[in-house]
Sequence to fold (310 residues):
Amino acid sequence: MAGAGLLLVTGCGHTPEKKARTAGDKAAAGQPRKAVSKPPPPRRIDCDKIRCVALTFDDGPGPYTDRLLNTLRVARARATFFMLGQNVHGFPGVVRKMALDGHELANHSWSHPNLTALSPAEVRSQVQRTQHAIAAASGGVRPTLLRPPYGSTNAKVGRAAGLPMILWSVDTLDWRYRSVSRDTRVGITAPRRGGIVLFHDIHKPTVDSVPKVLDGLRKRGFTFVTVSEMFQGKPLKPGQTYTEAVVPKPPAPPRAPGASPSSSSGPESPEPGSPAPGSPVPEVPGPGSPLPGSPAPGPLAPGVPAPSGR
Ligand SMILES: [Zn+2]
Fold:
């Protein structure tokens, strides 16, 4: 798989922002909750029939996560949070609220190491400590998905982790540019049907961009689902890597009898050559992108590691 062991550069975007932790959690705790004790069940959504996209937020919870949850709640959108175990204890109220709002709680390791550089026992420890932390904070939710930091994984990591590994089809590069206008533009235009979109809720510009991203994607006809909702009916296997949901070719729209159904593939259907994990999303260059001084993400040659803050 393309991302296996390719990490060289660690411009990691998960810098802990300890100061604001308490504030975020107070905000969550300050909101009176109804006496709801259980997360809502997964919705029955057939993403083979409707246009689904899974927004995912990594490296939190953090000081902006509670505000993001409020945004998602207003938009009635569900998302998936790949959380670092070491951040969970600072925001138990936020994690609980996340669960009760129907979002998917998922595992992003304890401390964001490159898992391919660890022993199997260390990989297991990274995963299991985080499982316990999330379960404790959420009131018993045990994640079923892992996103290996930087998307860096291999068969050995997969075996040790024992969970399906979810990468992404769209890397917004929000961690690199920290630009609301850019996050908004990429977030609205890049996703395709069945896509998994990588954001980071530890960055303020990202969270600031989400209302418009939701609005823009909704106008494109998308429904916001969790990763597990998107893969309903398509069992995810432990140790396997996934970058998007493969959507079958849409059925032919109603046509006159006798019309050929062979040309029914719409522009939103994922093509076989979808971007490899870690590859930058092809983008239309525009104002504000990239930021001055930032290297433009170019297409990567096979085997060339992606600079990564994922
Ligand atoms: Zn990460």
Summary: Confidence is low (pLDDT under 50) at residues 1-31, 259-307. The domain at 51-242 is CATH 3.20.20.370 (TIM Barrel). DSSP finds ten helices and eight strands in the chain. The two ends are 17 Å apart (CA to CA).
